[in-house]
Design goal:
5 helices, two-stranded antiparallel ribbon
């Protein structure tokens, strides 16, 4: 396409655009084309519109309105099922308390076991006759307390 042909094609497009803006439109046969926006082809008269007239044509909003209400109702039903108290509550309601107490109970369990061992040692020592007198029993008890009082790596 040469420059002259491109220029002529552009001029014709611009003239057609100008005519369309001014309202002078020509059809393929040269007749003016009527748009049926304000013209009723059945009665061959102009349509009269007022501000209070409601458009009778179906719009997307009218079609979607029923669907939207149905979706909202389904969503509300789904939310009520999801927010059931039994679904929210944990299976074991005191699991967090048990988790916090396990650390403290582990230390107490170890000290309890040490105390039980000390008592067993004292009882065995008294049964063997090593501490027939009160002084021997007291010495055995002091030795057991010294063993308990020594800090171990597990305490820290």
């Amino acid at each position: 396409m040469s420059l002259q042909e491109a220029s002529d094609a552009r001029k014709t497009r611009l003239i057609a655009l100008r005519n369309r803006k001014e309202g002078i439109s020509t059809g393929a046969n040269g007749d003016s084309v009527l748009l049926s926006r304000n013209y009723d082809p059945e009665t061959r008269t102009l349509k009269k519109h007022s501000k209070n007239d409601v458009l009778t044509t179906d719009t997307v909003e009218k079609v979607v309105q029923g669907v939207a209400e149905m979706i909202i109702a389904q969503d509300e039903l789904q939310r009520t099922q999801e927010l059931d108290v039994f679904n929210i509550a944990p299976k074991r309601p005191n699991w967090d308390l048990k988790r916090e107490m396990e650390k403290k109970l582990a230390k107490l369990e170890r000290k309890t076991q040490e105390a039980v061992h000390t008592l067993i040692r004292q009882r065995l020592a008294s049964q063997k006759g090593q501490s027939d007198d009160i002084l021997g029993a007291m010495n055995a008890q002091e030795k057991a307390l010294d063993v308990e009082d020594q800090p171990s790596d597990e305490d820290e």
